[in-house]
Structure formats: structure tokens, C-alpha cells
């Protein structure tokens, strides 16, 4: 009940305050535009228009401050183009005229006026109907006794009984009260939707473009880091073993006729080295795109990761469907790297991995009872995970106080 009353209060305050602001903004903006356009030919109109745009921007900022409470989420503030640093006084004066959002603010002040008027009237009507109807038992006996007064009940043919008049008015008040939250909320969303579209729509588009650019940069960085790590692992592991194997085979070839027994021993060592190299290459390939992930999906692939971890892993996968390859690769990469970090650095005795789907988002939670101290700062292992997730519009959060425990949460949109 309390959240409902708070919601009604926020929406009502927004609509009641929005009407006088809309009236003032409309009057000042229309007058300023008319005066500015009418005198622009003699240059007086230029500063008048600039002042009008700045005034409209101020009213738009007031609206943007109220929107988060109404819409229930933050809104973006537009990026007004600043004047160049070396601009002169006249260039700075006319700078508002060069910003497209400034003209949108002016247009909003004009378009919003009839909308704000309509929503204000609807709000006042529903509140008046609710209050007057529900309080009819208090004042209805007095108004009914006024000579010549014809109540609603009498007008619609239900008689001139005072009791009937009070009951009818009370019932109408109850109907207004029941529909009040829906009507007020609808009016607030209509006005707030217009404000969001005209005052923050372009800014939200710019933010989305920045997010996509950041995600692309993160993807490029993550892939570059992954390639460097793969190159380093191949150089330090299989490449060294293959060089040693080639030397052993060359030495065996030279001693083939002189010492067959030594050659047999060298070949045995070469076979062992070959098997170890193949094992390393298989381990590296699992970190790139394991066949089990490609063929069977996340659940079997994560089960294989948990089985290879040197620390006991409690795995809870609550999804059994397939997702886009980029999403599955990102989730697999996060789990693989996290389990590797847990095994190397955490000194944990148990690790938990939970994967679930909420709406259109995959929720991955990895926890351990280790010593903590993990974070996503640049230069640390988890920063690569954050970059990998940003490439698929995902987010990574880490809660790892010194002394533990550590909880890593990854959210990945999955369509």
C-alpha cells in the first residue's frame, strides 16, 4: 500500500507542477521566438533567439530532473555543443543557435503545453471526483437541504431522497478512487514519454553509440590479449617441446648405426615428449573454442571445466538451451579464467558456479571461500574478463574483500 501511495504522490506532483511550468515555458518561448525572428534582420533578434534557447534549456533541465522519479530510471543529459576555446564574444553569444538539442528544447516547450494542460485537467478531475465523492457522507446532508438544489440522483430519475444522493455520490467517489492510480500513472507516462523522447532521446542514442564503441574496443583488446597469451603459452610450452623433439630425433638419426640401443631410448623419450605436447595443445585449444562447447553447449562444457579444476567445484547450471556462439564463448571464457585464478591464487577449499537465466539475461555467479583480494583493475587477471564481457554488452562485478569470500557476478544479454 505504501509504495502505491508513494507512486500516486510522485505522479500527481509531477503533473501538477508540470502544468504551471509548461504555461510559463510556452509563453516565454513563443514570445522570445516571435521577437527574435521578427528582429533578426537587424541583428537584435540574434541575442534574443540565443536567450530564448537558453531559457528553454533551463526549463528542459527542470523536466529532466523530474523524469527519473516518474520513469523509475536515470535519464541521459544531452551534450550541448560548447563554443570553441578561442571563440570571440559574438561566437559565444550565438553558440546556442548551433546546437540541435537547443532547438528541440524550444520545440518541446511548445508541444508540451497542450499535453501538460490535458494531463493536468485529467489529474484535477480524478482527484476532485475521489475527494468529493468519498467525503459525500460528511457534507451531502447539508447540500441536499439547500432550497432548490437538485442532486445527481434526482436529475437521473432516482428520486430526491437525501440518502440516495449521498449513496450515489459515494459510489462515484469509490469508482474515481479505484481508477485514480491507473489514470494518474497513465497521464504521467504520457507526459514523461514525450519529455524523454524530445529531451533525452538524442542523448540516449549518443550513449548507446559510445557503449557500442567501447564494447568494440573492449572486444579488440580482449582478442589481442588472448592472442598474446596464446602465443606466449605456445612459445613457452609446445614450441619448446617440439624444438627439443627435433633435436632428439636428429641426434637419434646420427646414432642410428653406432648405438641402436641409445636410439631406441631416444625414440621412447621422443614419443613421451610428443604425447605431452599433444596434451598441452589440447589444453590450449580448450581455452579457444572447446569442441564440447561447440557441439553440446554450455552445460557439458562447464561440467568439463569443473571436472578439471584442482579445487572441488559445485556446479549448478539451470539452463539447457543454446545461445549465440559469442555469448557461450564469453561465459565459458569467464568460468575458465575464474576457475584458473581460484586454483592459483585463492587458497580456497570449495568453489561454486551457478548459471541461470532471468528474462533475457544470463546470470553467472562464481564464488569461493578463499583469501579474497580480487578486483578488475587494469593489470590484473579479471580485467580481461570485463573486456570480454563488454564485447557482448555484458557486465562484470566483483565482491572480494581481503580475507574473502569472493563472489564474481557476470550478466550477459542473451536475446
TL;DR?
The chain has about 425 residues and is α+β, with helices and mostly antiparallel strands.
Describe the structure.
With 415 residues, this protein is of the alpha+beta class. 70% of the residues lie in helices and 8% in strands. It is built from 13 helices and five strands. A five-stranded mixed sheet has the order 1-2-3-5-4, covered by helices on one side. α1 crosses α4, α1 packs across α7 and α12 packs antiparallel against α13. It is elongated. The two termini are 34 Å apart. The mean pLDDT is 79.
Write the layout of secondary structure elements.
Elements: H1 2-39, H2 45-71, H3 89-94, H4 100-134, H5 136-144, H6 152-155, H7 162-236, H8 238-254, H9 260-288, H10 291-296, H11 298-308, E1 313-317, H12 325-346, E2 351-358, E3 361-368, H13 381-390, E4 395-399, E5 406-413
Parallel strand pairs: 1-2
Antiparallel strand pairs: 2-3, 3-5, 4-5
Number of strands: 5
Q: So how many helices?
A: 13
Kindly state the mean pLDDT as a whole number? 79
The helix content is: 55-70%
Summarize this structure as a short list of keywords or feature phrases.
415 residues; alpha+beta; five-stranded mixed sheet; 5 strands; 70% helix; elongated
Amino acid at each position: 500500500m505504501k509504495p502505491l501511495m508513494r507512486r500516486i504522490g510522485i505522479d500527481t506532483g509531477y503533473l501538477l507542477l508540470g502544468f504551471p511550468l509548461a504555461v510559463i515555458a510556452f509563453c516565454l518561448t513563443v514570445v522570445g521566438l516571435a521577437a527574435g525572428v521578427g528582429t533578426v534582420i537587424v541583428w537584435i533578434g540574434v541575442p534574443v533567439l540565443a536567450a530564448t534557447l537558453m531559457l528553454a534549456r533551463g526549463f528542459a533541465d527542470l523536466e529532466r530532473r523530474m523524469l527519473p522519479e516518474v520513469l523509475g530510471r536515470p535519464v541521459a543529459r544531452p551534450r550541448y555543443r560548447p563554443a570553441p576555446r578561442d571563440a570571440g564574444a559574438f561566437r559565444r553569444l550565438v553558440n546556442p543557435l548551433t546546437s540541435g538539442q537547443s532547438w528541440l528544447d524550444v520545440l518541446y516547450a511548445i508541444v508540451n503545453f497542450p499535453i501538460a494542460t490535458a494531463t493536468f485537467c485529467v489529474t484535477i478531475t480524478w482527484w476532485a471526483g475521489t475527494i468529493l465523492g468519498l467525503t459525500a457522507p460528511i457534507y451531502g446532508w447539508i447540500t441536499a437541504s439547500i432550497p432548490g438544489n437538485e442532486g445527481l440522483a434526482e436529475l437521473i430519475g432516482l428520486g430526491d431522497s437525501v440518502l440516495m444522493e449521498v449513496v450515489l455520490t459515494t459510489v462515484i467517489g469509490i469508482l474515481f478512487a479505484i481508477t485514480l492510480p491507473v489514470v494518474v500513472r497513465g497521464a504521467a507516462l504520457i507526459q514523461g514519454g514525450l519529455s524523454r523522447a524530445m529531451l533525452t532521446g538524442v542523448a540516449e542514442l549518443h550513449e548507446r553509440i559510445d557503449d557500442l564503441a567501447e564494447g568494440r574496443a573492449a572486444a579488440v583488446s580482449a582478442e589481442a590479449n588472448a592472442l598474446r597469451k596464446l602465443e606466449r603459452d605456445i612459445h613457452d610450452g609446445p614450441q619448446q617441446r617440439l624444438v627439443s623433439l627435433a633435436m632428439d630425433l636428429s641426434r637419434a638419426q646420427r646414432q642410428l648405426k653406432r648405438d641402436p640401443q641409445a636410439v631406441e631410448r631416444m625414440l621412447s623419450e621422443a614419443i613421451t615428449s610428443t604425447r605431452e605436447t599433444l596434451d598441452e595443445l589440447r589444453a590450449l585449444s580448450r581455452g579457444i573454442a572447446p569442441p564440447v562447447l561447440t557441439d553440446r553447449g554450455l552445460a557439458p562444457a562447464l561440467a568439463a571445466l569443473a571436472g578439471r579444476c584442482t579445487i572441488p567445484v559445485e556446479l549448478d547450471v539451470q539452463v539447457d538451451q543454446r545461445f549465440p556462439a559469442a555469448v557461450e564463448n564469453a561465459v565459458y571464457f569467464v568460468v575458465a579464467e575464474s576457475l584458473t585464478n581460484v586454483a592459483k591464487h585463492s587458497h580456497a577449499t570449495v568453489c561454486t558456479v551457478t548459471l541461470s537465466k532471468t528474462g533475457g539475461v544470463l546470470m553467472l555467479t562464481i564464488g569461493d571461500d578463499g583469501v579474497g583480494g580480487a578486483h578488475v583493475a587494469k593489470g590484473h587477471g579479471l580485467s580481461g574478463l570485463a573486456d570480454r564481457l563488454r564485447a557482448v554488452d555484458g557486465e562484470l562485478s566483483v565482491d572480494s574483500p581481503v580475507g574473502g569470500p569472493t563472489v564474481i557476478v557476470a550478466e550477459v544479454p542473451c536475446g
